[in-house]
Amino acid sequence: MWSVIKQLWNKLFGKGTASVFNLSVSIPREQLLRTGRILLVDDERPDLIDDLENDGFSIDYLPDLKKTDMNRITSGRYDLLILDFGAVGSDFGDDEGLELLRISKRTNPAMVVLAYTSKALPSNLADFYRLADNVLNKDAGIRESFEKIEEALNKAKAISNLWPAFLNVKGVATGSKEDYDLQKAYMKALGSQDDLKAFKMLVSAKSGKESRSTIGDVVVDKLIEFGLKATIGA
Amino acid sequence: MPSFSELKHVSILPIVDLDRIGPPIDGTTHSAPGCCAKFYSRSAKCYDHYSALKASKHDNELVQCPYGFASYKLTLGATTVGMTGFVPYPRIGGANERQRAKDYPHNKIVRTALGRINTALKHFDEKFREIEKTLIERYATALHEIRKLNRVVKQQAERICRKESPEKPDQANKSVVRIWKSAELMSQQFEIVEVMANEELANLPLNDTFSVYRMFDKVVRIYKSLHPKRLSIEATGLDNHDIRACDKTFPIIATVLVENALRYGLVDTMVTVNVHSNSQQVEVSVRNYALSTKKLDDSVFKRGFRGPSDKEGSGNGLYVAQLVAKQHNTKITISTSAPTSGKVVHSFEVVFPLAKRT
Q1: H-type helices in A171-207, by residue range?
Q2: Which residues are CB-neighbours of B224 under 8 A, at least 6 positions away?
Q3: Which domain holds residue B126?
């Protein structure tokens, strides 16, 4: 296996490209549904949850996210949060779902969020759609909802989501020299166990914001898991 | 914003709709001179005068009509009107004007009064907009409850169809499919109202990759369940129809273009959708047949525009669709064919740049 990875690594460096964005993983639907963890937050439990469960999705439901529930977000347990706007988030101020979205994105940037509301939001709350990764209309059809959710789970597990999240928790600017060096170290880490250890040490030394060290570890684990399964994309 | 049909009730002076030119309509205190209707039907001079007024770049600039009355253009939001049928003081000059002043002494207006008339109309326009905005916001809030009920209907109908025909739910019991698709249409309409209530949504980033063909095909399928013999869609050119798009708003373009083409097309005539892709872009055209030989122009994209048709409509669909097109860095254009056997083909076209492949 290591030789295959090494071959891929050589191929990448042979072209003079160390970009992690050349890596891709194709996850079979069954595996995606089994391993993708979803949290749906809505003050009224939608029937869609039953449809999703019957189809094999792993989904948890909460009527609201209270301060005491926030460890569910910060622990990195979920790949996808489906978040309602109205009548949620009262523990965090008056902006309802928008404030929950801000906090979720700040504390777990690797988690994909689908804005889930049927309310016509006024201009000052349009950030609810802007900050979310995508929108899942509450009155979307069942098949359409499945497609959106699968797409969101795939996105959550893609390098295009994981790498910026990793940079975010480590406090590294996108496109900076440090970003480039980390990409190089990551690609190298996929080539041998020793390099992998070295990469882990490098990133753990760079702890980022202390309060986010747990999520930092989770993101690094996901990155490594991703990298070891990856093939080079077109 | 007020359309001509509202403005004609509050205009003090005789008024002409410059988007649909005709003889002047009486103002509230100054009637349209009796000779105007006569002159208008006698030759094209009056029509040409109002057309030139519409094309003028300046509002409030007094122009003399061929028969000696004064006119000026006034733009209120999306509505362009001509105030006309009066003789100003100080005069513009000429024998025709002197004669009209003698014939219609009640229609002599001091120029300084024109400013006050315009101010009053602009004030009316502003208040009208405020009220309209408040109404739309309240309407949108009320829609939330209806939307919840619609969700139950739509999803329940889909469940029944999926249970009956898991592989092809679209081909389940026709009545249930009809309920399902009608509820889907209602969802699409709610999206339009939402953008009306909050135009900021048409500034959201293009956060997703969409297949233009799939989107139009989906909308066509929905409408086909209600108008089985009136719609066709075809894809030509290359297979790639992927563009960067906003998942919240992009479907509105397809919904509005298909819905309008069906609504305003001649009964029992086809609406055809073509999605053509080349290496650079995806071009969409939606065509229908119409009786009117009158060319459609960009006025149809104005907020509250109502075309020369007896069909019901909010007059906002194309306005919202054009906002969404702009969000996607493009523009919806229209063209009308030359008439054949009393029919014309209206074609709405929009071109999207292909998404860059990474």
Answers
A1: 177-189, 193-205
A2: B231
A3: 4-130
pLDDT digit string, tens, across residues A76-87: 999 999 999 998
User: What are φ and ψ of residue B274, in 5° steps?
Assistant: -120, 130
Q: How far apart are CA A178 and CA A182, in angstroms?
A: 6
How many beta-carbon contacts under 8 Å exist across A and B? 74
Residues of A in contact with B137 (CB under 8 A): 120, 122
pLDDT tens figures, A30-69: 999 999 999 999 999 999 999 999 999 999 999 999 999 9
State the smallest CA–CA distance between residue B263 and chain A in angstroms.
Answer: 24
Of the candidates B92, B113, B130, which is a domain's last residue?
Answer: B130
User: Is residue B153 within 8 angstroms of chain A, CB to CB?
Assistant: no
The separation between CA B157 and the C-alpha centre of its own chain, rounded to angstroms, equals: 33
Q: Could you give the CA distance from residue A132 to residue A200 in angstroms, rounded to a whole number?
A: 30
List all residues 6 or more positions away from B316 whose beta carbon is below 8 Å from its beta carbon: B192, B196, B303, B304
CA-closest candidate to residue A83, choices A153, A143, A36, A133 = A133
Distance, CA of B22 to CA of B49 (rounded, Å): 11
Structural domain boundaries in chain A: 2-25+158-232, 29-156
Give the residue numbers in A contacting B (CB under 8 Å), as ranges. 21, 47-48, 51, 118-123, 126, 129-130, 133-135, 137-143, 233
Task: Quickly name the fold that domain A29-156 has.
Answer: Rossmann fold (3.40.50)
